[in-house]
């Protein structure tokens, strides 16, 4: 019987050794495959051609043998040890390199150093990730023979853009800081100590220019340097009442005692008039600049300033008029007066606050407030007449929890409060008519121009027709041409006016659909909201709700996520 065995050769590969013996049971290729599979060499690469050649030669030898005669030994290398191979792939931008290992078949595995060297041979010289090199080597050693394992082994570093020049404010501005209760050393809050009113002195640093940086260089995995973009530069803006410090031209300092205000890329300092209280002892105040009142403004007193007015205490049935903002530390209190009516034109409140900018106070009752921008009342707004071009916010800066009770509000964009109205059913009127009227006035003015142009075009059309009907001997071609040209001009103007009107009507519609009233906790009975000609009045208590205009009606809708 022919015998077959697997024997290591000098190359550490495996030979198939056949000893021919003629018998009734010949050996086939399948027998050799079974032998290999059951051996310890099954992971090596099989050279099938050599198996085929060995069996063919065996059969030739067997033909010349007698029964049970043994022939010469046949030896073929059929199993080869294959070392792990590697392929390095580099992204088109040279910012990443990966390695794909084909696992060894009984041969040598690739070490982390071997992977590193292979990558270097392909031009990868920077950004190697040591952990990935080790992990890939380990994964390759564990992988099934001839399977592939891939990992990213190197990454380039993008260039980092430089930081832009920054203007750092060194003091809080009058616009951004509203005085707050101060913390005690034990962590509690002193509700009576509300901090100092901001006022700078001559030489005080206001703002600092922090120059731009050049950025940080990057590199590709092939070692090419990537140049960064430098940051954007800007100069510090020297506002009124300020100058660059002689010691450091990147620092802005004050040249006078006054109120600091942020401007684009800098600060200004406005003149300030400072007084403890405004009462019969101080008299009325009228000042070109900012006014700081550390205490109260007493009943019947007036404060008029071209800049901001800051009050550290209360305003009691007094008049404040500011060309900038009005900030009232505590509250505004007027004499009790009935304002639960839809028409407040003839009502005069004892406390009147007007600002071309914003108004901010802790609470307000029986007051008339007029603002060119926004109004913020932190706790409670009661029985007041409010007119503003911006947003009314009744609540804390970070929590909408204030109470808006009764009164008349003519808002510009939106009204926000924790609760609106009162459980007793006090009337609260909210309207957005001021802006609506402006749109309608512009539309009416356009309509007047349209009617005027229609009249002119009709007259010119009639004149042109009459000129065309004249007998030839009386025809005036020059006059006809002039009339036609004038007609075309007015017809074009008429078309432009129709387009203007359409744009204004669209703008009006968009405005009406953008305004709203928000009650984050409650909207009580008696809250009436008017948007143009459309009105809705609450007839019961609602939970968190929003009131807005849509499809020719005013709707009260619940706020699902408040």
Written account of the structure:
It is built from 6 helices and 38 strands. It has a 23-stranded mixed β-sheet that branches. This is Flagellar Assembly Protein A N-terminal region domain-containing protein. Residues 86-265 form the Flagellar Assembly Protein A N-terminal region domain.
How is the secondary structure organized here?
Elements: E1 3-8, E2 14-19, H1 29-37, E3 45-46, H2 48-63, E4 74-80, E5 85-90, E6 96-102, H3 112-121, H4 130-142, E7 148-155, E8 166-169, E9 182-183, E10 189-190, E11 205-210, E12 218-219, E13 225-226, E14 237-238, E15 242-244, E16 251-254, E17 258-263, E18 266-275, E19 285-287, E20 290-293, E21 302-305, E22 309-311, E23 315-316, E24 319-322, E25 326-333, E26 351-355, E27 359-365, E28 367-371, E29 375-388, E30 391-394, E31 403-410, E32 414-420, E33 428-431, H5 433-469, H6 477-514, E34 516-523, E35 527-531, E36 534-537, E37 545-549, E38 554-558
Parallel strand pairs: 14-18, 18-20, 19-21, 20-22, 21-24, 22-25, 23-25, 24-26, 25-27, 26-28, 27-29, 28-29, 29-30, 29-31, 30-32, 31-32, 31-33, 32-34, 33-35
Antiparallel strand pairs: 1-2, 2-4, 3-4, 5-6, 6-7, 8-11, 9-10, 11-16, 12-13, 15-16, 17-18, 34-37, 35-36, 37-38
């Amino acid at each position: 019987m022919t015998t077959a065995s697997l024997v290591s050769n000098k190359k550490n590969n495996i030979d198939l050794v056949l000893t021919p013996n003629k018998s009734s049971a010949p050996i086939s290729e399948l027998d050799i495959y079974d032998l290999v599979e059951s051996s310890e060499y099954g992971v090596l690469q099989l050279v099938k051609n050599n198996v085929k050649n060995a069996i063919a030669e065996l059969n030739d030898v067997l033909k010349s043998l007698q029964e049970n005669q043994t022939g010469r030994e046949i030896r073929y290398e059929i199993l080869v040890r294959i070392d792990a191979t590697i392929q390095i792939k580099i992204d088109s931008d040279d910012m990443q390199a990966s390695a794909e290992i084909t696992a060894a078949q009984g041969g040598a595995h690739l070490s982390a150093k071997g992977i590193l060297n292979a990558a270097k041979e392909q031009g990868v010289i920077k950004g190697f990730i040591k952990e990935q090199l080790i992990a890939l080597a380990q994964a390759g050693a564990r992988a099934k023979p001839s399977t592939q394992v891939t990992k990213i082994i190197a990454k380039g570093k993008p260039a980092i853009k430089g930081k832009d020049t920054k203007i750092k404010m060194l003091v809080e501005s009058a616009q951004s800081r509203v005085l707050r209760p101060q913390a005690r050393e034990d962590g509690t809050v002193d509700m009576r100590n509300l901090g100092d009113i901001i006022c700078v002195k001559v030489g005080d640093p206001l703002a600092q220019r922090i120059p731009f940086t050049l950025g940080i260089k990057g590199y590709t995995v092939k070692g090419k340097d990537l140049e960064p973009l430098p940051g954007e530069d800007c100069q510090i803006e020297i506002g009124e009442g300020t100058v660059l410090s002689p010691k450091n031209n990147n620092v802005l300092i004050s040249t006078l005692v006054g109120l600091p205000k942020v401007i684009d890329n800098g600060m200004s300092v406005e003149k300030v008039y400072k007084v403890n209280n405004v009462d019969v002892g101080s008299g009325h105040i009228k000042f070109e600049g900012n006014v700081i009142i550390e205490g109260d403004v007493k009943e019947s007193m007036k404060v008029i300033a071209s800049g901001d007015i800051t009050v550290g205490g209360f305003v009691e049935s007094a008049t404040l008029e500011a060309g900038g903002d009005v900030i009232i530390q505590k509250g505004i209190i007027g004499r009790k007066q009935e304002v639960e009516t839809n028409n407040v034109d003839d009502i005069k409140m004892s406390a009147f606050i007007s600002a071309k900018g914003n108004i901010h106070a802790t609470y307000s009752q029986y007051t008339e407030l007029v603002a060119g921008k926004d109004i913020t009342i932190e706790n409670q707004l009661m029985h007041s007449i409010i007119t503003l071009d911006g947003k009314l916010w009744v609540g804390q800066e970070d929590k909408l929890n204030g109470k808006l009770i009764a009164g008349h509000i003519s808002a510009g964009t939106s009204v926000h409060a924790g609760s609106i109205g009162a459980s007793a059913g006090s009337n609260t009127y909210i309207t957005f008519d001021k802006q609506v009227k402006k749109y309608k006035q512009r539309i009416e003015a356009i309509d007047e121009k349209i009617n005027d142009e229609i009249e002119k075009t009709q007259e010119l059309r009639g004149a042109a027709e009459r000129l065309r009907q004249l007998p030839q001997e009386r025809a005036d071609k020059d006059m006809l041409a002039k009339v036609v040209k004038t007609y075309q001009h007015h017809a074009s103007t008429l078309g432009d006016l129709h387009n203007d009107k359409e744009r204004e009507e669209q703008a009006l519609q968009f405005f009406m659909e953008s305004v709203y009233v928000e009650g984050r906790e409650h909207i009580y009975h008696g809250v009436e909201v008017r948007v143009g000609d459309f009105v809705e009045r609450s007839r019961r208590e609602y939970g968190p709700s929003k009131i807005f205009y849509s499809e020719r009606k005013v709707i009260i809708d619940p706020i699902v996520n408040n």
